[in-house]
Design a protein that fits this description.
174 residues
Amino acid sequence: MGILTFFIAILVVAFSRLAVANLGSFFASVVFLLIITIGVIFDMIGVAAAAADVAPFNARAARKDFGAKKGLHLVRNADRVATFCSDIVGDICGTVSGALGAMLVVRLAFVVDLGEAILNVLVVALAAALTVGGKGFCKGIGITKANKIIGGVGNFLTLAEVLVPWRRKGGQNE
C-alpha cells in the first residue's frame, strides 16, 4: 500500500503543481477545491463500500444488470475498497491540498493585501474545514445511500472498462 500510495501521490502532485503553476489564481483555487472534493468523494465511496449489502448486488448480478458485477466485487472487497478510497486517495488528497494551499498562499499574497501569515492561516483553516466538514457530511450519505453509491460506482467502472479496449479479460486485446 505504501508503494502504491507513493506513486499515486507523485501523479497527483505533479498534475496539481503543473496546473497551479500554469493557471491564474482563480483556476488555481478551483484545482485546490477540486482536490479537496475528490478526497471527500473517495472517502464517501470507501464508507459506502463498507456499509453496502451484498444481497441486492447478487440479485442484480444474477439478472446481469449493467455494473452489478463490479458493484458486487466492490462490496465483497469492502476492506480493500475502503482502504484504497479512504486511506490512500483520501489521505493523498488531504496532503496535496495542504501543499497546494501553501502555493496558493504565495500566489494570493500578491493579489490580496492581508499578509502572508494571515492568508496562510485562512487557507489552511479553509482546507481543514472543507475536508473535515465534507467528510463528516458525506460519511452519513455513504452509510444511508451505500447501495446506491456502490451501484453508481459499479456502473462507472463497467462503463470505463467498456470504453477502454486495452482492458480485457486475460489481458488480451480483442
